[in-house]
Write a structure and sequence with these properties.
Nucleotidyltransferase, domain 5, alpha/beta, 5-stranded mixed beta sheet, single chain, globular, 25% helix
């Protein structure tokens, strides 16, 4: 599968796996981005259909078949739950997840640790794509998207309430922190811009956040010209958004 010619050996490949598409980021040994591509699906698919789409992506982008010193994969899905590290027992992974997601007997459950905050994120990666990546690259690292976002939000060390929202085509992740502690990490599926702002405001209500004063920073597939931003700004006064970036999550790996 891999091409072992020296001209086709790069430093790092980062891959984002979602149920509505893939993102790829390849870097050379100097850390310069040499390729970044997105492979969007026409609609959100089921997990068992990912392997077929991944094979098509491998055919579309030949550099995915090169050798890399380091390969990292990020899984973005709602199949996760956060656990205080003091209460975490690796032998009980299914018990933590069964209350908020359907678990199959064949599901592989992984976990990430945010050691600085004493938090463990237990989640279900997509096993079929994991196997495909192993066949292509050998060993690789993988993480859950919300682990990266939570770590990023907490590392900022905000002393007041702060909200980070990562947007993709069919879902958004929301991380809320207060005094450098995690209040909420959740993923919401939406279809319309009204769905988006409803879930956001509902979380504000449940956490008793003031939408007039609490800052909300949006990243991912959103910018100040998007309909999502415009409707949200109607209700959230301290709202900012970076330039729309499909592979924002992959940049957090660097």
């Amino acid at each position: 599968m891999t091409n072992k010619s020296s001209e086709h050996i790069h430093d790092r490949l980062s891959i984002l796996v979602r149920l509505d598409g893939f993102s790829f980021l390849a870097q050379n040994f100097e850390g310069t981005v040499v390729r970044r591509d997105h492979y969007d699906f026409s609609e959100k698919i089921q997990a068992h259909q990912l392997l077929e789409q991944l094979d098509l992506a491998f055919q579309a982008f030949d550099y995915l078949q090169y050798d890399y010193r380091k390969v990292s994969v990020v899984y973005a899905n709602e199949l996760f739950t956060m656990i205080p590290e003091a209460l975490f027992d690796e032998s009980q992974l299914a018990e933590y997840l069964k209350f908020n997601t359907k678990i199959l007997a064949t599901d592989y459950i992984a976990h990430d640790t945010i050691a600085s905050q004493g938090i463990v994120n237990a989640y279900i990666p997509f096993a079929n794509t994991n196997n495909r990546f192993f066949d292509a690259y050998g060993s690789f690292d993988f993480y859950h998207a919300v682990t990266l976002l939570t770590t990023h939000a907490l590392d900022k060390g905000a002393k007041k309430d702060s909200v980070l929202v990562h947007v993709s085509k069919t879902s958004f992740d929301m991380v809320v922190t207060r005094d450098s502690k995690l209040l909420l990490a959740n993923t919401y599926t939406f279809t319309t811009k009204e769905d988006f702002v409803y879930y956001l405001l509902f979380a504000f209500e449940q956490l008793e956040l003031d939408h007039e004063t609490v800052p909300v920073h949006c990243v991912g597939e959103i910018d100040t010209e998007s309909e999502l931003y415009k409707i949200t700004y109607t209700y959230i006064r301290h709202l900012t958004a970076a330039t729309a970036q499909n592979d924002y999550l992959l940049t957090l790996l660097n």
